[in-house]
Every structure is written in structure tokens, then in C-alpha cells.
Amino acid sequence: MSKIIEKEFFSKNVVKLVLEAPEIARSRKPGHFVIIKIGEKGERIPLTIAAANEKEGTITLVVQKVGVTTAKLFELEVGDEISDVVGPLGQATHIEKVGTVLCAGGGVGVAPMLPIVEGLKKAGNRVITILAARTKDLIILEEQMKEHSDEVIIMTDDGSYGRQGLVTAGMEEVINREKVNMAVTIGPAIMMKFAALTTKKYNIETVASLNTIMVDGTGMCGACRVNVGGKTKFVCVDGPEFDAHQVDFDEMLSRLGAYKDQEVAAYQKYLETVEV
Amino acid sequence: MENIIEYLKEERAQDWRNELRKGMKAKERTSRIRVSMPEEDPDVRNKSRIEVNIGLAAENAVLEAQRCIDCPDPTCITGCPVGINIPKFIKKIEAEDFAGAAVTLKETNALPAVCGRVCPQEKQCELNCFYTVKLKKTPVAIGHLERFAADWERNSGQMAVPKTEKLNNIKVAVIGSGPAGLAAAGDLAKFGYDVTVFEALHEIGGVLKYGIPEFRLPNELVDTEIEIMRQMGIKFKTNFIVGKTASFDDLKKDGFQAFFVGSGAGLPRFMNIPGENYNGIFSSNEYLTRVNLMNAADPEYDTPVISGNSVAVIGGGNTAMDSVRTAKRLGAKDSMIIYRRSEAEMPARIEEVKHAKEEGIIFMNLHSPLEYYADENGRVNRMKVQKMELGTPDSSGRRRPVPIEGSEFMVDVDTVVVSVGVSPNPLIPKALANLKVTDWGTIVVDKDSMQSSIPEVFAGGDIVRGGATVILAMGDGRTAAAGMHKYIQEKIKAN
Ligand SMILES: Cc1cc2nc3c(=O)[nH]c(=O)nc-3n(C[C@H](O)[C@H](O)[C@H](O)COP(=O)(O)OP(=O)(O)OC[C@H]3O[C@@H](n4cnc5c(N)ncnc54)[C@H](O)[C@@H]3O)c2cc1C
Ligand SMILES: Cc1cc2nc3c(=O)[nH]c(=O)nc-3n(C[C@H](O)[C@H](O)[C@H](O)COP(=O)(O)OP(=O)(O)OC[C@H]3O[C@@H](n4cnc5c(N)ncnc54)[C@H](O)[C@@H]3O)c2cc1C
Ligand code: SF4
Ligand code: SF4
Ligand code: FES
Based on the structure, what is the number of domains in chain A? Predict the structure, then answer.
């Protein structure tokens, strides 16, 4: 049981939640995530620990609404309890001062990228963040990213906000403009794939944080498996961060779609029940 | 050992036992045939989660109990890893003292309702029964009788809460709530310790909950046992991963003096053949966890699962049988086992193989998968398999499967469950730098006390044995509890 202490909307579809979780707050390091489950019938979903306060015994999550479980999470109010929160899980991010870091995020990857951007900046790096989305309404966390980046570049597919073009166009622009020592990418698998191909051209070391489907988060099921450099790895225990140039994104993309039909149907059904 | 034999003799010499023995001639007892376990109709049960075995009616349990001749040298006991006083509990059933039978079981086995259902009796107690060994007849149905007595007690609504010593306020931690952890926790509580069980998942029970399906072991039954343990004062902390949520050092600072590690062999193995990461290919752990722990087949629950039409399960153990029968229950038209040896070598319980066959499971023994293929969406749609033959015995004594060149062919499948074994869970070894482990990743312990290379850390169950059985895990838990008790008491004396 974890009580919600604070709830703040960053936008219609992004919420910040502060939860009571003293043990996790004590043990977590940047890059770790938790798995939460709401109620007896809920699904287990992974969420990155965006921040923690050991003294207060709290952790912070930044969540984007995409389906049933995240929608249910949005409905909870301050004082409500999340029945299950377990963590910290995964390997901590390896954050050090390398110089200039290019962070490229899109879709569900923007929320989990926030603590990494913050960490990199604190470590003394020059951080350039690119936020990419199909259209203006889908750009999230712009303010928070600005706070922790030296520069934020917005890219939209339809040009409705920031510059028009894909995330890779923005990345090339920066790479051609200045020396980039390292890149980080989090987002839909297809975006990470092309981000990785882009940095590979320039031989820039790149980290991708993979957001695969998970069940237990402890290495027990293999739902989160990905192919990295020809070897099967479990994202929950070996990751979530990997060398982006080694990841088989096509396979990951396909695996992410495994339950697409069920997820869409479940969300439709959920929306109907909420409306009634 | 001496005193155990003495104890058994004394017990056997009691008047009520003598009376019963005299009540019926041995000849008459041995001429009876074993009562059969009533089962749900295969065509009904393979569409539902109802339990397959219905349980013996009281009069049949008594009839079966009468078959046991109350041997002076009860060899059956040597086959039971926790040394249940088998003739005593069976004779209590014969005397229609069912509550007394349950008490006898609980002297040495904390979860008789579970063991009566899932023990591989044919390789343990029943293998060593006088009937099997000497008479070459079907053994006394020890497992069915054990289940009967335990169920009778539970249904009576008067389950005895085991007596515990006065609380000594010494904190001990049990890591993992599978059968090993539960058995250790039960005994530690009896000794008077302040016991906390830490469990990584959101439910208590380990494999009993997330692995073994309801049609073999109803969850409610495990929950009842856990409720009794709560009444004994044992605390349970779910969603707590020792080594992650808190380190051993954190727990020591919190006052824990000794640890029992029963973290299981939860890591799924894959075969590393081409195409194994296509959609629709699961580890049995994932498949069973979705269905058993997350209730994915029930539309009221949020977790999804793929219910295939043509499902292949790779393997021949209990896990494979559970997966293939689960697939059938989720609506598969063809649900098949693909096993590289023959039925004789299958590690699964014989009863499960029999039940699976009755339920319409297809067995492709002496076959092994080589590669998987997928449709344009990345969903598996075919697999290439190869025929095998049996060669010379390997280190396990089973005949080695040898591929037959040129025998490959294709099978249409839309779901595959890989059930080729598990490896020890590395969480704890990773969290304890000085812990001695084998090359396989199992924790090295002293067999008599289950103490590891770190004096305050004890371990048992699958994390020590690799994949084993429920009753062996429980036996380890009990041995370890005794070892911990001795360790703590000696430490107190030394100070
Ligand atoms: C290690 C890790 C850390 C994460 N951290 C965060 C975080 O801090 N904040 C946050 O908002 N989300 C995070 N995610 C993603 C989050 O877990 C998913 O958004 C969530 O599981 C969706 O559940 P749902 O039931 O709401 O939607 P579902 O019904 O499961 O899915 C709805 C739609 O979203 C798509 N989708 C679902 N999961 C993912 C995914 N992982 N990647 C891409 N698309 C997906 C589905 O294809 C579907 O179309 C993280 C994921 C991982 C693996
Ligand atoms: C599908 C299936 C069917 C089976 N059928 C049979 C059968 O019919 N008969 C039989 O005798 N045996 C059977 N077995 C084997 C039997 O279930 C196991 O041998 C037994 O459960 C092992 O018990 P355990 O207590 O060692 O571990 P487990 O039951 O695996 O329990 C370990 C627990 O520890 C938890 N854990 C792990 N690490 C940590 C940590 N760091 N912190 C906190 N918690 C942790 C895990 O989440 C888990 O709940 C079957 C196994 C499976 C998978
Ligand atoms: S616990 Fe298992 S081995 Fe022992 S008597 Fe019962 S069924 Fe047989
Ligand atoms: S060996 Fe068989 S017949 Fe003899 S006491 Fe045991 S169960 Fe009864
Ligand atoms: S989520 Fe189950 S192994 Fe990673």
C-alpha cells in the first residue's frame, strides 16, 4: 500500500504523483523503476522513479496516460492508496560527466527521460534535449525539461509546434553544429531505432532506455526480453538501459505490439464504463 | 534414527492400533483393490478451472485406509521427505478419527492439503509402500488419504492453530513465501521467534500461487493455510524484494538476527533457437503467471493473455503439463506437448500425464523444435520440429535423445510455451557478495543445518536444489528452521 501525497497535472495527459514509499525512497538510485498495480484486478505496469525524498519517505512518478492502467492511476486522488508498489527495480543509470549529451525523447519515453536529463545536468554535462511528437498537443513536459536542459528543441511531424520534422532531423542538426559526446534516447521503439541509426553514422555512443512489456519485473517471466548484440536480455534486470547500437529494435517493436488489440479493446471498454 | 524407530514402535503398540489390526485379517486387507479418486468429466473440466480430483468420500477413505496393513517396518515413511508417520495417520482414518489424522499429518508437514495434491507420490511414499515393493500391487493411496484428512479438517471449520512457544522477541527474516519459506516460517514461529516473511510478488505462496494452476491446487486452499500462519503471529510483507527494496544490512539494522532464503528457481530458460522471441512465444513462467497470478483469462481483470488455437508446449515436466492443460482451458483446439524423450522419461507426475491425455492433449513425444516462423505481424505461425530417438543413458540415468537427421517437418502453431526448466533466482546471490554459490547459481549449504557460507544466512528449496519439489522445499525449510534455532541459541549462550 502506498498513499498518494501529492498530485499535480503537467498537462491533460501527464500527471506527477508523489507516493509514500519509505523503503523504496531509501534504496533507489536514478534510473530505477517501480512496478505498480491498482487493486485486485489491476495489471502490473512499470514506471520510472522520477525523484525520491529519503527524509520524507516519498517517491515521485511522472505518468503519461496511454491505456487502462495509466488512466486508472489518473483517477486516484491525494489520500488514496495504490495497492501494490514494488521496487526499486532495474539497473541504476550510469551518470557521469562526459561533456555534451543529446537526449532525444518522444511518446511514452519523455516521462522516464526526465530524471535522466536531470541527472546528466547535475553531473555537469551540457544537455540538449529534443522532444518529438506527431503534433503540438502531444508535446509533454516541455517546462520541466527546460528547467534541466541547456537547450530544448521541439520537433513535430506536422509542424504545428516547434520545428517540422522527425526527431532525427533535430539530432542531425545538433550533431552537425557542435561536438556531441553521448546520446540518450527513450521513446517508441521505431523512434529509438532511427535515433540509434543516426548517431551510429557519427559514431556517437548512445544509450536507449527500453520500455518493453513487463509482468513481474524481477527476471522471472521473460516477457521483457529483447535481443541485444545477438543475445537475449531481460530489460527488467539487465536494463532498462542498453547500448542503442546493439538493440534489435525491429524485434522489440513487434513484441510491444503483442497485445495491441486487447489493449485497445480494453481501453475502449474502460472509457465506456467511465462515461456511464 | 534409533529413537525414530523406537517412537514408531511405541506408537504402533498402542491399544487402539492393536485393536484395529486385529479387526481385519491382513489377507482381507491385501485382497481389496485401491479405491479410485473421483474426477470431474474430462470434457467439462478442460473448459473450466474447477479442480480435476474431487476428493474421496469419507466411506471410501475408510475403505482405502483399511488396505494399509500397518506394517511393523513401515517402509513408506522412508519415501516421504518429511517423514510423516504414515501408518498412524492412515489408521486414524480407519478409526474414523479424521481430526486426529490431520493432527498426525501436521506433526511433520505444515501443508498436507497441498502435498496430498501435488507430491509425486509414485516416486516417494507410494513407491516404498509394502504393496509396491513386496506384493507388486497398487500401493495404498497415501496421497489421496493425506488430502482427504487435510480437506476434512479445513471443511470442518475448526482448523487447529499450531501451538507456539512464548514470543522471545528475536526477529528473524524469511525471504520468499514459497513452500520452503512457509515451512521455515511455521517452525520458527513455533520456536517463539518474531517472524517476518518478505515476498517480492503481491501474493503469498510462490509457485503454489503463480505456477500450479487452480485445477490442481485451488488458491483458496493456500490462502487458508496462510491465514492460520498469520494467526500464529507470522508477519507477511508483500511487494518487498530483499536485496532491492532493502539490503541485508538494512534488515540487520532493523534488528533481524538470522535469515532464511527460500527464493526459488524462478528464472526461465529458453532454448536459444531462431525465432524464439516472436510474439505468441512465452516462457511457462510468463504464461502461468498471467493466467494464475494475474487472472488474465477473466475479462474482469486488466492483464491480457493470448489464447491460441493451436498451442505447442515444449517440455515434459509438471510445468509443461500445467501449461498445456491451461492452454486447453483457454480454448485451444489443439494443445500439444512436444517432448524430446519418450513418455517413460517424463518428469511430470504420472497422474497429470493421465489427466492431460483424458482432456484431449496431444503428445508429440520424441520430437524437438528447431526453429520458429512468424507472420507479417511477428506472431508465430509455424515451427520446425525434428524427430528424436533414444540413445545411451546420460548422467541423469535417462536415455539421451538423439536427433534423426532428415526427419524435420513443419507444425502449424499460433502459440508456443517454452517449458524446458528454470535456473536459480540470482537476486539474493547478487545481493550478498560473500555468499558461496555453485557454478549453477544454487546456494551452497551445510546439509544438516542448511547454513550457508554466511553464518546468519540459511537457505533451502529450489534456490539450493535447482528445480525440485514442494515437499523437498518444505523439508529444507524445516531443517533450516531447526538450524537457525540452534545457531541463535548458541549465539545467545556465547554472549
Ligand atoms: C522500465 C520502464 C519505465 C517506464 N517508465 C514510465 C514512466 O516513468 N512514465 C510513463 O508514463 N510510462 C513509463 N513507462 C511506460 C508504461 O509502463 C506504459 O505506458 C504502461 O505500461 C501503459 O499501461 P496502460 O495499461 O495504461 O496502457 P496499455 O493498455 O498497456 O497500452 C496502451 C497503448 O500504449 C502502448 N504502450 C504500452 N506500453 C508501452 C511501452 N512500454 N512503450 C511504448 N508503447 C507502449 C500500447 O501499444 C498501447 O497502444 C515505462 C516502461 C518501462 C518498461
Ligand atoms: C508450474 C509448476 C508446477 C509444479 N508442479 C509441482 C508438483 O506437482 N509437485 C511438486 O512437488 N512440485 C511441483 N513444482 C515444483 C515446486 O513448485 C517447487 O519445487 C517449489 O515451489 C519450490 O519452493 P521454494 O519455496 O523453494 O520456491 P518458490 O515456490 O519458487 O518460491 C520462491 C518465492 O520467493 C520469492 N522471492 C524470490 N526472490 C526474492 C527476494 N529477493 N525477496 C523476496 N522474495 C523473493 C519469489 O517471488 C517466490 O514467491 C512445480 C513447479 C512449477 C513452476
Ligand atoms: S508428504 Fe508427500 S511423500 Fe510424504 S506422505 Fe505425503 S504425499 Fe507422500
Ligand atoms: S508400507 Fe504401505 S501398507 Fe505398510 S504401513 Fe506404509 S502405507 Fe501401510
Ligand atoms: S518482466 Fe518478467 S522477466 Fe522482466
Answer: 2
- In this prediction the pTM is 0.93
How far is CA B127 from its chain centroid?
Answer: 18
Determine whether the interchain pair B268/A220 forms a contact, defined as Cβ–Cβ distance below 8 Å. Answer: yes
- Residue A268 within any structural domain of the chain: no
The dihedrals phi and psi of A44, each to the nearest 5 degrees, come to -90, 125
B330 has a pLDDT exceeding 70: yes
- List CB contacts (< 8 A) between A31 and chain B: none
What does the pLDDT look like over B206-256, one tens digit per residue? 999 999 999 999 999 999 999 999 999 999 999 999 999 999 999 999 999
Span B447-491, pLDDT tens digits: 999 999 999 999 999 999 998 899 999 999 999 999 999 999 999
Give the integer Cα–Cα distance in Å for B419 and B410. Answer: 20
Residue A151 lies in a domain: yes
Contacting A with CB below 8 Å, chain B residues are 200-202, 238-241, 244-247, 250, 266-268, 270, 272, 276-280, 282-283, 285-286, 289-290, 294-295, 300-304, 306, 377-379, 425-427
In the listed set A89, A113, A144, which residue is the last one of a domain according to the structure? A89
Query: A133 and A244 share a domain?
Result: yes
Answer whether residue A94 is part of any domain.
no
**pLDDT of the residue at B467:** 85
State the residue range of the domain holding A7: 2-89
pLDDT digits (tens, 9 = 90+) for B152-207: 999 998 887 888 899 999 999 999 999 999 999 999 999 999 999 999 999 999 99
Query: At B5, is the pLDDT very low, low, confident or very high (cuts 50, 70, 90)?
Result: confident
Q: How far is CA A117 from CA A32, A96, B67, in A?
A: 14, 12, 74
Last residue of a domain, one of A46, A61, A89: A89
Relative to the CA of B124, which ligand 3 atom is closest? 3
The pick from A214, A228, A233 for probing ligand 5's pocket by mutation, whose C-beta has the most ligand atoms within 8 angstroms, reads A214
Query: Cα–Cα distance between B101 and B92 in angstroms, integer?
Result: 5
CATH number of the domain at A36, please.
2.40.30.10
Residue A276 has a pLDDT of: 46
Q: Spell out which residues of chain B touch residue A210, defining contact as CB-CB under 8 Å.
A: none
Q: Which residue has the higher pLDDT, A233 or B5?
A: A233
Distance A61 CA to ligand 1 centre (A): 13
The domains located in chain B, with CATH, are 2-37+46-156 (1.10.1060.10), 171-266+424-494 (3.50.50.60), 269-421 (3.50.50.60)
What's phi and psi for B434, nearest 5 deg? Answer: -90, 5
If asked whether residues A143 and A18 sit together in one domain, one would say no
Residues A252 and A124 in one domain: yes
Q: How far, in Å, is the centroid of ligand 3 from the Cα of B128?
A: 11
Q: Are residues A132 and A229 in the same domain?
A: yes
What Cα–Cα distance (Å) separates residue A33 from each residue in A43, B340, B350?
16, 40, 43
Q: Do B302 and A41 touch (CB under 8 A)?
A: yes
Cα distances (Å, whole numbers) of residue B405 to B274, B385, B389:
19, 11, 10
CATH number at residue A172: 3.40.50.80
Q: What is the complex's ipTM, to 2 decimals?
A: 0.92
User: In this structure, what is the dihedral angle of CA atoms A20, A22, A28, A33, given to the nearest 10 degrees?
Assistant: -30
Q: Reduced to 3 states, what is the DSSP secondary structure of residue B163? A: coil
The continuous run of DSSP H or E covering A87 comes out as: strand A84-89
Q: Above 60 in pLDDT, residue B1?
A: no
Cβ distance B313 to B417 under 8 Å? yes
Are A202 and A249 part of one and the same domain? yes
Instruction: Dump pLDDT digits (tens) for A11-52.
Output: 888 899 999 999 999 999 888 999 999 999 999 999 999 889
pLDDT tens digits for A187-196?
988 899 999 9
CB of B472 closer than 6 angstroms to any ligand 3 atom: no
- A16 inside domain: yes
How far, in Å, is the centroid of ligand 2 from the Cα of B264? 5
Residues A78 and A121 in one domain: no
